[in-house]
Amino acid sequence: MAGTQALTIAASGQTDVGQRRDHNEDAYLVDPDLKLFVVADGMGGHAGGGTASRLAVETIREAVGQARERDPRLFESPAGVEESPIPDVLRRAVEAACERIFQTAQAEPELTGMGTTVTAALVEGAGAYVAHVGDSRCYLVRGGRIYQISEDHSLVNEQLKAGAISAEEAKHSRFKNIITRSVGFEPKVQVDLMGVELQEDDALVICCDGLSNLVDDPEILQVVEETSLDDAPARLIALANARGGDDNITVIVIRARASAQA
Prior knowledge:
The protein is α+β, with helices and mostly antiparallel strands. The chain contains 7 helices and 11 strands. A hairpin with a 4-residue loop joins strand 2 (26-31) and strand 3 (36-43).
């Protein structure tokens, strides 16, 4: 868009098995060429969860890459965030992942019932586009504040919105690991789509609930603001592990910096 500040995007990601699990069912993607960033938190047992998250990341990467090859103009559109065609590209990529995971589970009985969360961000120009299913999260850090821009698809969040429980009760609920929407458990899925016009010095944080269940939003904000990009994911993971690390922990931090205009 004319007059929009040119931005340079840099990102760093890391995953960790945590303190209580003997295997990692998370998968993540940091692809600077596609400017595509994905966190997937798999479920469905030792084989199923890891397979679902891996298939999700692979399929989304392939789908976005193929869309860029077929029609690069989609990614060069001068349209603003609300008119951009990129959210449809992301939605179709997540839907393709859902279908692939479901079909794989149908073909291999030991994988029956597997699924995964998906939170994927694609950055183009000053626009960040997010596709989301499940209870992994995407945060925007801007001007000393942190905003959760994805909505948890979880039983606890439904109870919270209905006023049935308080925010404090939600933190300790025994139902906090029950999600209401996932990728691959059924053949089709409804995908939440969001767009953010990035500003200089903004950051995006994508993480699984292995982090957000143990590290509060203000703490995430503090680490992202005070730590270098390369070190921020490891510091956040270390915080979660210090508090028990009861799940796999995956974090991607993305930063937008000003770049010289051509």
